[in-house]
């Protein structure tokens, strides 16, 4: 975790700012192991391998909890499975992830947040066409983040990862030039809260892009149920849950109609 990220991180309990109370590896403005403490409610958060745990685990409920356990279990095999599936279905990762990245309207030096970053598989594709970005990633699954960290180290991509819940994000208001999400919202306990959080942490004028499966996805709700996961009652874009103040709402289908891309913009302050 970079020291500069302290300007953006907020306490998941009370939204207060953190200070560092313990660090044994402050090198080059980077903390690998340590503890943060909220200046307001005094809650502590540990940092392991540079990843702060900024989650209120007691509040993780319903399908969020099921998916957290599921993704913790499958994180080691997720990358090869998705690579294989995207080759068969969409002609490979460049087509699958690169096509999505084109929606993001990125500019060099943008501060970018991926909500549910998983193993960071989108990062190589968004970086390639914009050069330098200030990347942040949040995920509910600790094991998925470990996998993500291995990947970004291998790819030499710099990103500030943290464990957190999409419906209660540990970031200050108006922090990011771009907020995006791909592949988890169908299973969220509270989609509406997660969309409101994406909107809150985006800077005025910035674009929020959300993508997940449509009901045309090749695997069925039944298969999810067999794996002990909540069957998604409503696959597809939650257009009706976008915050009312949002502008430029857009919906497209992609990936042979199996994925949607939903975009909306936080208005500039008047
Ligand atoms: C299918 S993976 C997609 C990962 C990555 N976005 C990608 O495109 O490869 C879904 C991700 O959503 C995360 N996730 C599920 N529920 C979440 C929640 N409530 N808050 C944050 N992340 C969540 C999972 O841990 C997992 O990493
Ligand atoms: Zn606090």
Q: What is the number of beta strands?
A: 11
Low confidence ranges = none
Count helical runs: 6
Strand order of the largest sheet: 7-6-5-8-9-11-10
CATH class of the largest domain: Alpha Beta
Could you please say which CATH topology of the largest domain applies here?
Answer: Rossmann fold
The appropriate CATH architecture of the largest domain is 3-Layer(aba) Sandwich
Spell out which ligands are present.
S-adenosylmethionine, zinc ion
> Biggest β-sheet: count, sense, barrel?
7 strands, mixed
The CATH homologous superfamily of the largest domain is termed: Vaccinia Virus protein VP39
Beta percentage is 25-35%
Q: Helicity range of the residues?
A: 25-40%
Radius of gyration: 18 Å
In angstroms, what separates the terminal alpha carbons?
35 Å
Question: Structural class, from secondary structure content?
Answer: alpha/beta
Shape: globular
How many domains comprise the coordinates?
A: 2
Strand and helix order: EEEEHHEHEHEEHEHEE
Return the average pLDDT rounded to an integer: 90
């Amino acid at each position: 975790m970079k020291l500069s990220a302290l300007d953006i991180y907020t306490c998941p309990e009370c939204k207060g700012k953190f200070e560092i109370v313990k660090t044994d590896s402050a090198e080059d403005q980077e903390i690998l192991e340590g503890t943060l403490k909220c200046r307001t409610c005094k809650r502590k958060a540990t940092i392991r391998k540079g990843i702060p745990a900024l989650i209120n685990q007691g509040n993780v409920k319903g399908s969020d909890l099921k998916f957290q356990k599921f993704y913790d279990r499958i994180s080691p095999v997720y990358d090869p499975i998705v690579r294989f599936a995207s080759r068969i279905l969409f002609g490979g990762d460049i087509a699958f992830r690169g096509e999505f990245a084109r929606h993001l309207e990125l500019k060099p030096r943008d501060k970018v947040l991926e909500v549910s970053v998983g193993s960071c598989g989108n990062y190589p594709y968004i970086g390639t066409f914009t050069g330098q970005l200030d990347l942040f990633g949040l995920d509910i699954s600790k094991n998925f983040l470990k996998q993500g960290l291995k990947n970004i180290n291998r790819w030499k991509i710099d990103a500030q990862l943290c464990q957190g819940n999409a419906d209660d994000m540990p970031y200050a208001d108006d922090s990011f030039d771009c907020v995006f999400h791909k592949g988890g919202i169908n299973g969220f306990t509270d989609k509406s809260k997660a969309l409101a959080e994406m909107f809150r942490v985006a800077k005025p004028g910035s674009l929020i892009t959300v993508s997940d499966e449509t009901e045309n996805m090749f695997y069925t709700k039944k298969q999810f149920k067999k794996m002990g996961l909540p069957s998604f009652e409503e696959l597809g874009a939650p257009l009706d849950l976008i915050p009312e103040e949002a502008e430029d709402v857009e919906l497209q289908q992609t990936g042979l109609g199996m994925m949607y891309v939903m975009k909306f913009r936080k208005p500039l302050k008047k």
